[in-house]
Amino acid sequence: DIRAVAEIAGVMAGKQTSDLIPLCHPLPLSSLKVAVAPDEAGAAFVVTACAKTNGQTGVEMEARTAGAITCLAIYDMLKAIDRSMVIEDIALISKSGGASGDYVRSTP
Questions:
Q1: Rounded-to-integer distance, Cα 100 and Cα 80, Å
Q2: Which of 39, 76, 82, 89 is catalytic?
Q3: What is the pLDDT of residues 40-80, one digit of tens each?
Q4: Closest Cα to residue 13, out of 60, 68, 87?
Q5: Which residues have CB under 8 Å from 90's CB, separation 6+?
Q6: CB 7 within 8 A of CB 36
Q7: Are 64 and 41 in contact (CB under 8 A)?
Q8: Cys bridge to 62: 14, 18, 34, 85, which one at CB 3.0-4.6 A?
Q9: Contacts of 54 by beta carbon, 8 Å cutoff, 6+ apart
């Protein structure tokens, strides 16, 4: 099951963000969820990662790491079928907390 394997890879990566990104602080995550769903046309996957902590900082790097690695896991499992796949639009949709405060992306 490509989706399940990719979601697990994303969760594992998000939990290891401080080991993967130099100078990124290790954070205690209270939740990290990754979802993979086909897009409306069925020609792509949409990956969503949501991270939460009870700490006083944001966890956007953990969520973005989880999303990126999920995409790479999908690519790895499907590259034998199509090496021309593209990973694009890794974007922060919203966040709350942390020193910079709340953020909501203005464009989808």
A1: 42
A2: 76
A3: 887 899 999 999 998 878 899 999 999 999 999 999 999 99
A4: 68
A5: 64, 67, 68, 71
A6: yes
A7: no
A8: 14
A9: 28, 30
